[in-house]
From TrEMBL:
Record-linked InterPro entries: GalNAc-T (IPR045885), Glyco_trans_2-like (IPR001173), Nucleotide-diphossugar_trans (IPR029044), Ricin_B-like_lectins (IPR035992), Ricin_B_lectin (IPR000772)
Pathway as given in its UniProt record: Protein modification; protein glycosylation
Species of provenance: Oikopleura dioica (Tunicate)
Family indicated by similarity: Belongs to the glycosyltransferase 2 family. GalNAc-T subfamily.
Domain Ricin B lectin, residue spans: 553-674
Name of the featured protein: Polypeptide N-acetylgalactosaminyltransferase
Region listing for Disordered, in residue ranges: 31-60, 122-180
Major location category of this protein: Golgi
UniProt cross-references to PANTHER family, sorted A to Z: N-ACETYLGALACTOSAMINYLTRANSFERASE (PTHR11675), POLYPEPTIDE N-ACETYLGALACTOSAMINYLTRANSFERASE 2 (PTHR11675:SF119)
Length: 679
């Protein structure tokens, strides 16, 4: 019993001494400056701390030293008491307390030495002040706090700990980061070396962009802030926003672009909003592209056992995601300043909003970062190929009045967007019977709009993307067939009778096997989705509706010397010429009617000189159903009815406009309608 009391007394003294030392140390280090939160890069997130006055009163310093000496005497007395207690315990032959003795002496001595070291540093600083006041004042401007080297190290250590706590976030209590490092401590040189180009390797071969240029760029490089100036004034209650899982799929991606994607997301996002980053390797040749990045906190990696494509890979990543929002990114992007908060803020306002950033351009040759126009939105033609549409003048005026407001878009590019996780699952995720890549953005865009959601571009969110001229990977069955199958599935499920316009634009699509769509039609029925005519009327009224029962409709194009040009009328009447195709209809939209065989543009019809047709230009006139306004279309040639030996020709269009010439099968007599045989 007596022995137990002694043990309790001993540890009570140890506890009291530890608390006392902690309090004294806190007093001595109060006001220590907060070092930058990123010890690797000096220009990272900084925390402001009140500056300490460097010129201290000498008497106060003497008083501080005297107080410290008094404290040291008290500590020495405590140590002696503890030593006496240890001797008594030794007398009781308790060998197990030998280790405790060494530990106590070591800990107390370390604390006391640190305390003395702080005071010596303060004394040395005071001498420097007396010897060179001007130098001291200059140093104060460079280092606002002016504390000792040891105190500075303590402050840096504390700031790093604070950064770690911030990275973890409120919702990350169960997140296991054992053995992981912050992104700025990741050994990027070793990772990049593992994916470096060979001595004679073509830098464009593997990824269809200049990998040599990419490899030379820092993993955390600065990019220009391309947002509107009003965006920086937007304030978000970050603690109220939902967190997100970032899902990045890749196939044979370059190490440098994937690393820069991951680093930019972590570097330019509030830490508590990033729940995790999931890297999905779609069966790359090298299985070690993603796994090394899991050494970075919050990064996970999974690998497909066979090639699945972007669509199924994203669904697999979403299946294990724990964040409230899913953010899908390509593997060669760079997040810009403040990119995430506007996306999550909009979803916080409306959970059925599917939001995309403005996609800036990263050059495939030199990786130069260029801001994209904020006056664009996503669209498509009847061939169901994505394109960028310029906003109407009215929309641009509204944008100027409210430059930070969301932009309603009929379609998203598909590579980069955020969506509420539960809403993603309710909507039916992706069509899992689509292959590889292509058409999935079309399908999800139709589905979001027709099933009571909204699709928006958030102008204050900017993400750069490396745009390439070619795909670096192969498509099983060929890219054309894969895209045709995927778009045919989307058309069959969502476009109702308007799918006939798609078949008119892409006749070969009728021959494509598209598989079973019953699961997707069940999604449409379950969600009670709206018709495609509603979509055209309320979401995309700009899409031109073809004239039914037409032999040909839309732009009438011709390829000559490698350039695609379209028949156009720039004067509202008169002669016709060939101009660069713009794809917006208007002065380049024509219809060859099936019933009257009229070659029409709005209320005007193309006619020819009936008396001397050869060599003379064709002209616009008021439609009157006369014979010299009737045309036929045979084997890509436009001919006057009853004159099978004459063809419309563009060879003299610069001098005369389009003329009628004797048919000779030259390229200047070959024309293609945007859509054929519309029913």
């Amino acid at each position: 019993m007596r022995r137990n009391s002694r043990i309790l007394l001993l540890f009570g003294i140890i506890w009291f001494s530890g608390v006392y030392l902690y309090v004294r140390n806190s007093e001595n280090t109060s006001g220590v400056f907060n070092a930058e939160s990123n010890p690797r890069h000096g220009n990272r997130i900084s925390k402001d701390a009140p500056a300490k006055h460097h010129k201290k009163d000498h008497k106060q310093k003497i008083k501080l030293v005297e107080d410290h000496n008094l404290d040291a005497d008290k500590l020495e007395h405590d140590i002696q008491d503890i030593e006496h207690g240890l001797e008594d315990l030794k007398d009781s032959n308790d060998d197990e307390f030998a280790a405790i003795e060494d530990s106590i002496r070591h800990d107390l001595a370390d604390d006391d030495d640190k305390d003395y070291a702080d005071m010596e540093a303060l004394s040395e600083e005071d001498k420097d002040d007396e010897n060179d006041a001007a130098k001291k004042e200059s140093k104060a401007k460079a280092e606002p706090t002016g504390d000792s080297k040891i105190n500075k190290e303590i402050a840096e250590e504390k700031t790093i700990q604070d950064k770690d706590e911030l990275d973890k976030g409120e919702n990350d209590e169960d997140y296991e980061d054992d053995g992981k490092v912050d992104w700025w401590n990741f050994d990027d040189s070793a990772y990049l070396a593992a994916g470096a180009l060979g001595a004679d390797e073509d830098p464009y071969e593997a990824n269809k962009f200049n990998q040599a240029a990419s490899d030379r760029i820092k993993s955390d490089r600065a990019v220009p802030d391309t947002r509107h100036k009003e965006c920086s004034k937007q304030k978000y209650q970050v603690e109220q926003l939902p967190d997100t899982t970032v899902i990045i799929t890749y196939h044979n991606e370059a190490h440098s672009t994937l690393l820069r994607t991951v680093i930019s997301v972590l570097h330019r996002s509030p830490p508590n909003l990033i729940k995790e980053i999931i890297l999905v390797d779609d069966f790359s040749k090298n299985p070690n592209i993603g796994p090394p990045l899991t050494k970075i906190k919050k990064v996970k990696a999974i690998r497909n056992p066979k090639r699945e494509g972007l669509i199924r890979s994203r669904v697999r990543g979403a299946a294990i995601a724990t964040g409230k929002v899913l953010t899908f990114l390509d593997s060669h992007v760079e997040a810009n300043e403040g990119w995430l908060e506007p996306l999550l803020g909009r979803i916080h306002e409306s959970r059925t909003a599917v939001v995309s950033p403005i996609i800036d351009v990263i050059g495939m040759d030199d990786f130069h970062y260029v801001g994209a126009s904020a006056d664009l939105k996503g669209g498509f033609n009847w061939d169901l190929v994505f394109k960028w549409d310029y906003m109407s003048e009215q929309e641009r005026r509204e944008r100027r009045r409210a430059p930070t407001s969301p932009i309603r878009t009929p379609m998203i590019a598909g590579g980069l967007f955020s969506i509420d996780k539960n809403w993603f699952h309710e909507l039916g995720e992706y069509d899992m019977d689509m292959d590889v890549w292509g058409g999935e953005n079309l399908e999800i865009s139709f589905r979001v709009w027709q099933c009571h959601g909204t699709l928006e571009i958030i102008p204050c969110s900017r993400v750069g993307h490396v745009f390439r001229k070619k795909h670096p990977y192969t498509f099983p069955g060929g890219s054309g067939n894969v895209f045709a199958k995927n778009t045919r599935r989307a058309a069959e499920v969502w476009m109702d009778e308007y799918k006939e316009f798609y078949f008119a634009a892409v006749p070969s699509a009728k021959m494509v096997k598209f598989g079973d769509i019953s699961k997707r039609t069940e999604v449409r029925e379950r969600l009670q989705c709206k018709s495609f005519s509603w979509f055209l009327e309320n979401v995309y009224p700009e899409l031109r509706i073809p004239n039914k029962d037409a032999i040909g409709w839309g732009a009438v194009s011709q390829t000559n010397k490698g350039l695609e040009e379209c028949i156009g009328n720039t004067h509202g009447g008169g002669t016709l010429g060939m101009y660069r195709c713009h794809g917006d209809g208007g002065n380049q939209e024509f219809t060859l009617t099936k019933e009257g065989k009229e070659f029409r543009h709005n209320d005007l019809c193309i006619g020819y000189n009936a008396k001397e047709p050869v060599g003379n230009p064709v002209k616009f006139n008021t439609c009157h159903q006369m014979s010299h306004q009737r045309w036929e279309y045979f084997s890509s040639q436009i001919k006057p009815e009853g004159h099978t030996n004459l063809c419309l020709d563009s060879k003299n269009h610069l001098e005369k406009g389009l003329t009628l010439e004797v048919c000779n099968h030259s390229k200047t007599q070959v024309f293609s309608f945007e859509m054929r045989n519309i029913k």
